[in-house]
Amino acid sequence: MRVAVIKSNGYIDKRINKILIFNEIKGDFITKFTMNSFNKYDVVIFTYKNNIPNLPKVLESIVLEQKIFVLYINNIVAIGEFYNILDNLYFSIIDKNNIETEFLSIIKNSLKYITEINKCKIENEQLKDQLKSIKLVNKAKSILMIKGFSETKAHKYIQKTAMDLRLSKLETANLIIENKIDI
Predict the structure, then answer these.
(1) Distance from chain centroid for Cα 5
(2) How far from chain centre, in Å, is Cα 36?
(3) Residue 14 structural domain
(4) Do the domain assignments include residue 40?
(5) 153 and 103 part of one domain
């Protein structure tokens, strides 16, 4: 796990650094967070001490990208300025007085859930692609069935034509749908 901490040049940085070192977590203290940091880090930490104009909007834009987990360390209980992202899995807020007790568990649990969500997103995209392929092949089969093929023969025709043309079944189905194969 790699952590980026936006420097505040104060005692909070020292407390965060102690926790990172004690738990053998690689942490970099940086002056600003750029879009290139998404690929480099798993977590970015901001504090109320950061001198960033319009910090709530900056955090909101990073969280809504859903590419990196954002932890915000606050000095007061008020959370109203974060209402848009408060229930987002990519964001968490803790009180500065609870850093030692909450910091590590929040980061580890959040990263675990984000990893699972990303796996589900990938699987979802793969399933959508499979469904799209099935629909296209079925559409090609129905075109062949209108021309007198049985469903079984239509399926075999698509398979054989795909092999003969050295194309995928999906590409062959598209050619049938576009009427680019003589039947």
Answers:
(1) 21
(2) 15
(3) 2-118
(4) yes
(5) no
How many angstroms separate the CA atoms of 120 and 89, rounded?
14
The separation between the first and the last C-alpha atoms of the chain, rounded to the nearest angstrom, is 57
Assigned token pair, 166:
């050295």
Q: What share of the chain is helix, strand, coil (3-state, %, to 5)?
A: 55, 15, 30
CATH of residue 154: 1.10.10.10
| pTM, to two decimals | 0.70
Among candidate residues 124, 121, 179, 176, the one with its CA nearest the CA of residue 154? 176
pLDDT tens per residue across span 59-110 = 999 999 888 899 999 987 767 888 889 889 899 999 999 898 898 899 888 8
Q: What is the DSSP string of 99-159?
A: HHHHHHHHHHHHHHHHHHHHHHHHHHHHHHHHHHHHHHHHHHHHHHHHTT--HHHHHHHHH
CA distances from 39 to 2, 42, 60, 88 (A): 10, 8, 18, 20
Q: Are residues 100 and 74 in the same domain?
A: yes
- Do 106 and 143 fall within a single domain? no
Pairing of strands 2-6, 43-47: parallel
Mind listing the pLDDT tens digit for each residue in 130-166?
Answer: 999 999 999 999 999 999 999 999 999 999 999 999 9
